[in-house]
Amino acid sequence: MIIDPKTFERFNAVLTGVIVPRPIAFVSTLSPAGEVNLAPYSFFNAISYQNVVFSSSRNVGNKSKDTLRNIEETGEFVINIVVDSIAEAMNETAAEFPEGEDEFGIVGLTHAQSQIVKPPRVAESPVNIECKLDQIIKIGDGAHEHGLVIGTILLMHVRDDIIDGHRIDQAKLMATGRMAGNMYCRTNDRYEMVRPVYDPEKGVAVKS
Ligand SMILES: Cc1cc2nc3c(=O)[nH]c(=O)nc-3n(C[C@H](O)[C@H](O)[C@H](O)COP(=O)(O)O)c2cc1C
Which end is more exposed in the chain, N or C (fewer Cβ atoms within 10 Å of the end residue's Cβ)? Predict the structure, then answer.
């Protein structure tokens, strides 16, 4: 089957069904008036060792998305990593709460003070990444408009028990992955694959 994204009905379901699993940025922001906002974004990744990116649609229905607007206006945000223990709370925050409602309180999560930026961290998340805005790239038009938010990492908070030297204990982190639609996955089925290096004398790639 060959799919043309311009004509295939509900192409979004196909796309998000094949690019899986996607990590979830649980983004906390502040409005210029100081109202706290928290929402999940799974068009998310690290794009360099100093930068993260996520993408938000401009609007949902006839309302603009608070996260994108807050970052445009304040230039700051925190990415909280979604793990098994807070996955349900994360999902609840995706409901379209009225502007100015603090989703932390609604879903039972706790503010933890950030050190550099103003938006609070999610205390229940084992990893919080304090970011300042690098740039927002506008993608698409009209109902398809998105903002691609590129952030510079200022500070990362990692819960002590999940880190040993520079190694994150994945069994303790238990990051949540987003599959298509309402489906998620756990990161408890992992395996090792050693990367080969090319040996020019033998003319083959070898694993050391
Ligand atoms: C797991 C999950 C991932 C999501 N990822 C995105 C995303 O990548 N981009 C987006 O625009 N909306 C995404 N949403 C929807 C937003 O979270 C939702 O529209 C939310 O209400 C926006 O809140 P805000 O207006 O406070 O920013 C996602 C929802 C869920 C549950």
Answer: N
